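hey so i finally got around to running the thing on that chain from the lab meeting. sorry it took forever, my laptop kept dying and i had to restart like 3 times. anyway pasting the input first so we r on the same page abt which one it is
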Amino acid sequence: MNQIIKYDCIIVGTGPAGLGAAFKLINEKPGMKILMLDKSNYSTGGLRNDCKMNFTYPIGFTQGNWEKEEAEYYMDQVEAILNPDLMDKKNIDVYEKRASSLGVELLNIRQSHLGTDGGLALIKKLCAQLESLGIEFSLGNEAQQVLPEGKILKTAKGEYEYGSLIIAPGRQGFNFLQKVMKDLDIYYIDNIVDIGIRVETRLDHYPIVKDYYDPKFHFPGKVRTFCTNSGNAHVVQEKYKTHDGKDFYSVNGHAWSKQKKGENGLVNFAMLKTIRLTAPLASGHNYAEIIGLQAALLGGGKPIMQRVGDFRLSKRSYDHSFNDDYYDFEPTLKSCSPGDIALAMPSKIMRAIWKSMKQLDTIIPGVLHPSTIMYYPEIKMYANKPEFKDRHFAVKEDIYMIGDGAGTSRGITGAWASGIRAAEGILQ
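ok and heres what got predicted. didnt touch it at all, straight out
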């Protein structure tokens, strides 16, 4: 029988939340025996995709878990470790005035952007720092079950004893997190989900990104822009599994830094509508799975793409819709199925997003050029809301849940801050 190794703290997940906790613990208590594990063979999380970081409240901080003063206190600690190179912004007052006249809000956010290659370099540097301080990593090792009576974590590669356990699996660990909460009889709800599209167009049709890299527009109807990428920008797909093992895809976006790949002259960003299921209270995650499966059905197992010109004429897109004549750029995610998004997206969500896109086209004329591509679906499942026992995100004695998957954050800096807060609970 294999010997069970004991650690002072085990951290499940190597994204920003887990890294934030690890740095806080090892810096405050050198020599602490810490294990970080991840089901992937590499460190995961938001730092890998384009690595955009926002340093202004409330971006990245979930309501109910953070007060402004508190978030800014932790944000200072995050900034001290990540040492971001903040980006300049120009002409914001012009866009703010246009937006305000339509009842739209443009948030002025302090931002840093490294690009996908820069994010990978940062992850490598951070993990090397932690290893040099004595923290162990076990990659390709999936957590499976928590046994609180003996303080045992079962994984694909063995069993480990913990003094404290931090669970920070991110959005893709949503199902695992729910399984743990059910096993440990932790009350939770997951009634919120973001559903929408990713827009791809020429940089000339969305020139605001030359002045403000990731502009945050908030529209009436709980619609917002999210995760803008420009320079050498690409739309990508992410594979998800439903609770019963079926596959579906959500689209996303990323960009390489100009130093690494040059520019392709394109920009992409998400248009997301927040859905809150309250009466009756229902699972936003299960609803998102149904949305994803329906899109996969109509897309032949792939995401759907449609030109704005076709959508406006109530026509589906075909392969020939993506020619080199009037439609003057090729989709960066060529594996999508040309089709009709309106057949797949619930009409209330579609109407809200299309109305917001028309408002955006008034603020930045050109974004709804007929060549612009809409990809569907983009789904953000942040919605687990465990019942926390204290301000440090403890759910049981010596067990903490943090990060986007646990609903304590919605982005890199918020996730890192939640890791620091959990670590403080352990240190106390």
